[in-house]
Amino acid sequence: MAVDYAVIVLYLAGMLAMGWWGMRRAKSKSDFLVAGRRLGPVMYSGTMAAIVLGGASTIGGVGLGYQYGLSGAWMVFTIGLGLLALSVFFSARIARLKVYTVSEMLDLRYGGSAGIISGVVMWAYTLMLAVTSTIAYATIFDVLFGMDRTLSIVLGGAIVVAYSTLGGMWSITLTDMVQFVVKTIGVLLLLLPLAVFKAGGFAAMKAQLPDDYFAPLGIGGQTVFTYVLIYSFGMLIGQDIWQRVFTARGDKVARLGGTAAGTYCLVYALAGAVIGTAAKVLYPHLGSPDDAFATIVKDALPVGVRGLVLAAALSAVMSTSSGALIACATVANNDIWARVKRVAALRSRPAAGESADTGRAPGAEHTGDGSGAGAHDDASGTGAHHAAHDEAHDEVRGNRVFILLMGLAVIVIAIALNNVVEALTLAYNVLVGGLLVPILGGLLWKRGNAAGALASVAVGGLTVIGLMISLGVLANEPIYYGLIASLVAYVAVSLATEPTDPQVLTAWRARLAGRPDGAADEDGPEGDDPEDDEAGDTSVAVARVLSPFPVTGRA
Q: How many CA atoms lie within 13 A of 402 on its CB side?
């Protein structure tokens, strides 16, 4: 076991070292939150695969294979299908928006009045996702060291919080890439063939298990359909996934890199189910299906290999945990706290208004990435440079503080929470039931408006929550009826109310097309002509108040 311990300790030390290295790369808000939007195809596809394949996909995927056979692959398979759909149909236009959060996208599309509610929903989802990922440390460290549950959660959570706080998305990208390689070697290249060999090969596995273990729909058609609704659609709208799309260097990287990651997920899904099926042959009477992964690793693998495979499981948990943590902190800072500060500032300055010549609210000269987009003409170049540097430093520091605070909250909740499955199901149900329709509607249907989006979030979310209370969190009906109610509310209210302001739609289309005239670009004011500004438009004024980045109303 000493060799196994050494492998794990070296792995954990390497994660912290990369966090320190990433801190030196994170010089601006864009660097810290989206890795400067410059990841190439290899880094992008590896990190995208790492974040979607977490502890549930690895330990839980093997457990489903133990319980249902090859059809246990469907949960992770639907995650891969969702990632493929996102990459092929939506990733290019999402990457062009140059925003940081899903709620900022809704602000751009609907004129600034839908972001706060969606921000709260997305924050709750990412928080619970981070919590459930953090709880998995208890299982892994118990297998490794026989460590107490609370101490395991604190140790694993502290390492993730440390490297995420230090370097933000740069640190997470580097660690995720290493974690992707470790998972590939540990699960696909080592555990999979060794498990099948120990079980006697596929012929012996088929001879000893019921035929249902090899049926494509042995897990049940309704279960597969529910997985599609929750996980495939969840991939389309989750902040943790979108934030990785924002790191892509361009449209092509987002599309092709995401397609490669989605395809990898399909292979990983089948591998987990096969490993679980082999474990059923080797250990037919385990107390819980989720014990299958730890049992086969402890009993069937040689020293050294065992440590590497456990490092793979640890890497799976850490990649999802860190991705959810930075997503949670980004939403809390940009979508909730920034709006609270803006409303407080407006209330403290009731006499302050928009400047008559540009129609901008005070302080609207800052763009989404925090670079100066409206510097005074008489400012010296040196002074402007120092001001921009100080502002970027403050924004990075502010986001570090939020990652630290959210990380501490995640650790505390993880220690107190017991039912992981219900917590994760609750998070996904509220996310999909409340936000799927207004997000996809905003991307696909130009008649959808802010009133319809707000109604959709409220009706869909409340329907899901109400049915989970009455029928149980794990019931299938809440997500079915929640989505139907959300869609009906979105369409009905959008058609019954005024369409989105044409100026907002024009700016939205320009951003989707990647044109700098849609809104201020993150690198500065391209084509900034005061004559292009339109003052007095109500929807634009609302957007300025509610959005964490300015909306200038340019066509």
A: 26
287 contacts: CB under 8 Å, gap ≥ 6: none
Question: Is 314:152 a contact under the CB 8 Å cutoff?
Answer: no
Chain Cα centroid distance, residue 266:
19
Helix/strand/coil percentages in the chain, nearest 5: 75, 0, 20
Per-residue pLDDT band for 1 (boundaries 50, 70, 90) equals low
Q: Which helix (H) or strand (E) holds 263?
A: helix 251-282
Structure tokens at 443: 């991307």
CB 364 within 8 A of CB 374: yes
DSSP H helices in 283-304: 292-300
Cα 189 to the center of its chain, rounded Å: 27
- pLDDT tens-digit readout, 306-342: 888 878 778 778 888 888 899 999 999 988 888 888 8
Rounded to whole angstroms, how far apart are CA atoms 551 and 528? Answer: 13
Q: How far apart are CA 481 and CA 491, in angstroms?
A: 16
Enter the tokens of residue 95. Answer: 């990457």
Mean pLDDT calculated for residue range 152-157: 88
pLDDT digits (tens, 9 = 90+) for 479-506: 999 999 999 999 999 999 999 999 999 9
State mean pLDDT over 237-256: 92
Confidence of residue 257 (pLDDT cuts 50, 70, 90): very high
Q: Whole-angstrom Cα distance, residue 319 to residue 171?
A: 11
Cα 12–chain centre separation: 23
Residues 6+ apart with CB under 8 A from 284: none
Angstrom distance (rounded) from CA 510 to CA 440: 18
pLDDT digits (tens, 9 = 90+) for 410-431: 999 988 876 666 777 888 888 8
DSSP code, position 100: S
Compute the chain's Rg from CA coordinates.
24
Show Cβ contacts of residue 59 under 8 Å, excluding neighbours closer than 6 positions.
136, 139, 290, 293, 294, 313, 316
